[in-house]
Write a structure and sequence with these properties.
By secondary structure, this protein is mostly helical. It has one domain. It has three helices and no strands.
Length: about 100
């Protein structure tokens, strides 16, 4: 059951990341006065929160599985780059 939980969290994490990226890329293409722009903004924020919430179990699973040092370094630098991009992109989409 625990493995299924972590598998589902990993799937939702990746799905929400793809959804966030799709919303982010579509936002500039939507006209300002349409209701779709508001929907995309809200969907972007919800997917950001889902990324964060499903990232926590993935982090805990990673700590218990003790991956190789190379994989650990790669994941660290990947998230060092992606976390500010996600935060900045979400703030840009919400306020501008």
């Amino acid at each position: 059951m625990r493995e299924l939980f972590f598998l589902l969290a990993a799937f939702l994490h990746d799905l929400a990341t793809g959804f966030w990226l799709a919303c982010f890329l579509l936002l500039p293409l939507v006209k300002d006065n349409s209701g779709a722009r508001g929907f995309l903004r809200e969907a972007l924020v919800v997917s950001f929160l889902l990324i964060v919430l499903t990232g926590i179990p993935r982090f805990l699973e990673l700590r218990q599985s003790s991956p190789s040092p190379l994989k650990r370094k790669f994941l660290f630098f990947k998230h060092l780059i992606l976390i500010p991009l996600l935060i900045g992109g979400t703030l840009w989409a919400w306020f501008f």
